[in-house]
Design brief:
Structural class: alpha+beta
Radius of gyration: 26 Å
Helix content: 40-55%
Largest sheet: 11 strands, mixed
Shape: elongated
Number of strands: 17
Amino acid sequence: MGANSSKKLAAKCSFLSKDEQLIVSNSFKLASRNSEKIKEDELTKLWGAQMDPRLLQYINNYLFGQGEQKLLTVDLERFAELFVFCTRGTVDEKVKVLLTSLGKSEDESEDIPYNLVKEYVESIVSSYMKIQRVSNSKQYKSWSSRGCTAHTQNSQRLAESLTKDLCGESPLSRKLLESWLQGSTILGQLLLFVFMHLYNISHKDKAASIISQEGDQGSGESNDGVRERSLVPFCRGLDLIPSYPSILDLNQIVFINANLPQQYQLEWRFLFSSEIHGESFSTLIGRIVNQGPSVLVLEDRSGYVFGGFAPANWALGPNFFGDDSSFLFTLSPRMRVYMSTGYNQHFQYLNLHQQTLPNGLAMGGQHMFCGLWVDARYGEGHSSESCTTYAAYQQLSCSKEFKFRHMEVWGLGQPPPTPQEKGERVTGKGGSVLDGNAESKAMLKMAGKTMHSDGLREPPNT
């Protein structure tokens, strides 16, 4: 069967758009070796090296079946159906893929064990990470070249976080699965990425184009008009640091990034690391003030990894600020995200050199009972047992009062313009005009002085 024949068959699939017809027909042509049917071993040779072996088995279960009713070959319509169901399918269609992949009949009323569904999701997460490595996109290389990899344990944690709403409900009914898939947007994004990659293998020049667009933009629309978005942001700011000792792995980065507002998912800028910049709260402030939205990550001495997304520009002051896109999260020993409740506006707080107010950085809660508190005495903090600012919140650290051994901060998107870039003048003592780092330092110093209740005075060194 020639290329034109596969295109004609694809055109007969009324559920395919013209763009999808091109993708599916080219992929089918390669997998079937120009015949009218695909054999299981041929598909395994084409796709096997691209994904987790478990996902390959699930795909073969869906396409060819199992047991006595197993098919020797599959036609283009079934092959196209899998693509559509996994990239833009309805909830019913995704449930069909899930049940059939697990060897369950779509019509069966029997309940499904939770562990089977969790392993299915694990295979998708693992395949996503493997494809990132195989495709070696600019985004992936921006992290892997700095020593950031994807660990199996964290792939399992990411999968568990995606299925947490099902845990404890085993066995699972179809209705429960439908409700879960309806709200599982991150799983849908992973599926889209994986199957767009698999079905684009047949025309590598276009697949390479898609990957290139992801590296440059974080999202893009291929020549085929099918939109996809990678959840791996581009990493900037580590050019002069050959091997950066980040505490994050790729699974954790994807987990955080997937929960960020979409406009901040494209690029992360390195701002601060206690390993690189030393253990100083003043240094921390100097590197995060006027840098726009940011992600903070800490690791306590018990190995718990946690942090928060701060949507507002960090600034010294006596009051809480920020907006309800803020959230806290944990990465180890499990991955969880705690979104805003709307109960209060206590999202961000930053203060230093005060006598009547707490000195440190806070996210959520209230003074002395914060969701996340980093004390000005660098290396110490607390995470309260409860926090009304964030929904379903649980204590982030191993113990309420903790000492941390590592902290890092990443800026998101482009930083806001400096006063100089906005055409404003900042003057120092004697009216001299300041610029560059001197200007930033002066602004920080001035902010520290003006917040004293007993008048302006020089703040002590920290």
